[in-house]
Write a structure and sequence with these properties.
Length: about 140
């Protein structure tokens, strides 16, 4: 994944980025990346395809996560998080955002997100983890 595209384009960052799970970050100078890509056109095309796919995925998920009932939105988010974590071998749980963040992502009030998650937890579909570090966990 690539973060900080705005810097490459000489623009200010529009959003903050907070990693909710462990992440590995490498810092590259935009000038060096651009020079390298210009010398290797296939890498440049792969990067453009990656950006296009990421934008398409983002638009598709926004459309999916912002329609339907509150329960449908919560379940769609859970499916999305499970799909994202499936690529990581050996994962036994899936991180869930705080209720406040889930509400913001889904266009719901924090209380509504909480009312939708609570029955799932009572049914054993999610269990509390270390709230400060990991949020709630879904059995993978």
């Amino acid at each position: 994944m690539l973060l900080g595209v705005e810097s490459w384009l000489g623009q200010a960052h529009g959003y903050d980025l907070v990693s909710c799970t462990s992440a590995q970050v490498s810092r590259l100078r935009c000038r060096d990346v651009e020079d390298n890509l210009l010398q290797q056109p296939e890498r440049y095309r792969r990067l453009l395809r990656h950006w296009h796919q990421s934008l398409s995925d983002s638009q598709a998920w926004s459309a999916e996560l912002l329609r339907g009932s509150a329960r449908q939105r919560i379940l769609q988010l859970l499916l999305w998080l499970v799909a994202l974590s499936a690529a990581r071998a050996g994962q036994h749980s899936v991180w869930l955002p705080r209720r406040e963040d889930m509400g913001a992502m889904l266009g719901l009030a924090e209380e509504t997100a909480s009312r939708q998650i609570s029955p799932l937890c009572r049914e054993g579909l999610c269990t509390p983890g270390d709230h400060e570090a990991q949020g709630w966990m879904l059995p993978a």
